[in-house]
Structure formats: structure tokens, C-alpha cells
Amino acid sequence: QVQLVESGGGLVQAGGSLRLSCAASGTIFRADAMGWYRQAPGKQRELVATLSSDGISKYADSVKGRFTISTDNAKKTPNLQMNSLKPEDTAVYYCTVQDVAYWPPRSYWGQGTQVTVSS
């Protein structure tokens, strides 16, 4: 069973940067639909960014131009570089990966890492 663990969250002032990483224990055979989601208190979980196995990335409008999604060297888990952070970016951030070697694909989620942006 694959487990994902996020790291890199923390407290930062508005305008600052953080880099989130996602590590996997276990084997992901064919990673696809790698992504980051976030959930702020009292709100639903929302998409932040996704990255497909062929390198196509998508971003929420609220983070375009500020956040960049990439993969680790093995191209199995996503990273998220967050620049020009705003207080409204405060949330728990979750990484996710689909293993498309299986049918149906298996989706894995991390437990989340807290990002707090102070004004």
C-alpha cells in the first residue's frame, strides 16, 4: 500500500515563499494526475494544481503565476513551489497521485501539511 507524506508547510509572512514536497512509501508504477489540493477552514477542498504524466499542468486561477507544480526526479510525486503567498492561501495542502498501472487507477492522498500566511 502506498502512502504519501507532505512536507514543507509552515508559517510565512505575506509575500514569502514555501516549497511543498510529497514523498511516497511503497511503489508507484505509473504515476499520472499528480496534484495538489487545499482545504481552508470552513471551506471545501479545492484544486490548486495538477500535472499529467505528459507534462501538462493546470492551475487554479487564484494561484496562476505564483505557484509552480513539478515532479521529483523519479517523476512519481509532485512538488509545489509557492511564491508571493497571500493570507488567502492559508489552508491544509494535500498531494495526490494516481497509479494508472492498475484498472481502475488507484488514487493516493497524503494527510496534509498546514500552510499559514500571515498578513
Please explain how this structure is put together.
The protein has 119 residues and is mostly beta strands. Helices cover 0% and strands 54% of the residues. The strands form two sheets. Strands 2, 4, 5, 6, 9, 10 and 11 form a seven-stranded mixed beta sheet that branches. The radius of gyration is 14 Å and the shape is globular. The mean pLDDT is 96.
Tally of extended strands? 11
User: From the helix content, strand content and strand pairing, which structural class follows?
Assistant: mainly beta
* Low-pLDDT residue spans: none
Mass-distribution shape: globular
Q: How would a textbook summarize the main sheet?
A: 7 strands, mixed
Mean of pLDDT: 96
C-alpha termini separation = 40 Å
- Count every helix, treating DSSP H or I runs of 4 or more residues as helices: 0
| Oligomerization | single chain
Using only C-alpha atoms, the radius of gyration works out to 14 Å
The portion of residues assigned to helices is: under 10%
Approximate strand percentage: over 45%
**SSE sequence, one letter per element:** EEEEEEEEEEE
